[in-house]
Amino acid sequence: MLIASSSNLNKMKEFRTNIKPELSKNKISYHTPILFMGSCFTENIGNKMVDLKFPVLVNPFGVLYNPVSVRQSLEIILDKRNFEESDLGFFNNQWFSFYHDTEFSDSDKQQCLDNINSHLKIARQHLKSADYLIVTFGTAWVYQYIKTEKIVSNCHKIPAKEFKRFKLGVEDIFVQWAKLLNRLEDFNPGLKIIFTVSPVRHWKDGAIQNQLSKSTLILAIHQLIKVFDHIEYFPAYEIMMDDLRDYRFYADDMLHASKVAIDYIWKQFSETYFEKETSSIINEVNKIIRAENHNPLNSDSENHKRFLENLLMQKEILNSKYPFIKFD
Questions:
Q1: What 3-state DSSP class applies to 222?
Q2: Which pLDDT tens digit goes with each residue over 235-284?
Q3: In whole angstroms, what is the distance from residue 142 CA to residue 127 CA?
Q4: Is the pTM of this model over 0.85?
Q5: Is 223 exposed, middle or buried (0-12, 13-18, 19+ CB in 10 A)?
Q6: Where are the alpha helices (DSSP H) in the chain?
Q7: Angle between helical axes of 109-129 and 67-79 (0-180°, round to 10)
Q8: Can you tell me the distance from the alpha carbon of 82 to that of 71, in angstroms, rounded to the nearest whole number?
């Protein structure tokens, strides 16, 4: 009969690999403008900060999955150019831009252009004043439109035969992003950049190709970190793959992170970048958010009316305490 020693029993109590990101010396507060760009995981974290009333802008081109699309979008912002009719395509009764997600498509050409250009103007102003740019790469695979030989951000349901698909190399990503980072430094000398890799798996490529894609992204980012001292890496991918190595942390499709997983990664992000004062303000804002999300049994009752009056008063108190927090 084998008897486990007390030291072995203590080791056995931990049934998972804890990943604790190194605390960043560059902190984020409610006075830190941030531009988020990249994959849908960018929106998971970025939209949390929007809800908490941080001065952030999330994906002004919509969801972007690959490093080329994110780079091209940032170059468009830096070039200070507006979109014109010649920049649009037309398919399936919709005007669209190959640089944008489908959320920018519209049956009305002018509406499409106005929406794109208004977001571009806001993005340009925000990037100029931002303290942080947070970029999430999703995949190293790209689609190149054969007619123009340009890599697109979204295929807009145009037949696959009109595109060439291939995987970027580490050196491809490194060289082009090194050039962009130099431009960003000239445009906004104080800008700091956080790179992450999305934990969402692109399963259409299969297990091996998905892993090669993610590895390519991680290698390219860490090559950039060796050269530029204002870049950091937040290990969202590693937290999901190792710390949360269990399918209960995935959504029903077994590819996207569940709400529990997103909340856990958000907690790790918060501990890495927020000071105690910021976390304290977040707790106060969260109380109001939870109250706003409360579903009343009877919205016409006197109790609910008093509840809304009390909620409005809480917002006014918090706003007078922290004037930089704006509630709708």
A1: helix
A2: 999 998 888 887 777 788 777 778 888 999 999 999 999 999 999 999 99
A3: 25
A4: yes
A5: middle
A6: 6-12, 40-51, 67-79, 109-129, 170-187, 206-227, 236-238, 259-273, 276-292, 302-321
A7: 90
A8: 17
* Residue linked to tokens 């856990």: 264
**Residue 273 near residue 28, CB atoms below 8 Å:** yes
Euclidean distance between CA atoms 234 and 212, whole angstroms: 19
Q: Per-residue b/e over 73-111, b at no fewer than 16 CB within 10 Å? A: bbbbbbeeeebeeebbbeeeebbbbbbbbeebbbeeeee
Select the highest-mean-pLDDT range: 15-19, 36-40, 202-206, 299-303.
Answer: 36-40
Burial of 207 (0-12, 13-18, 19+ CB in 10 A): exposed
Distance CA 251, CA 227 (A): 37
CATH of domain 23-274: 3.40.50.1110
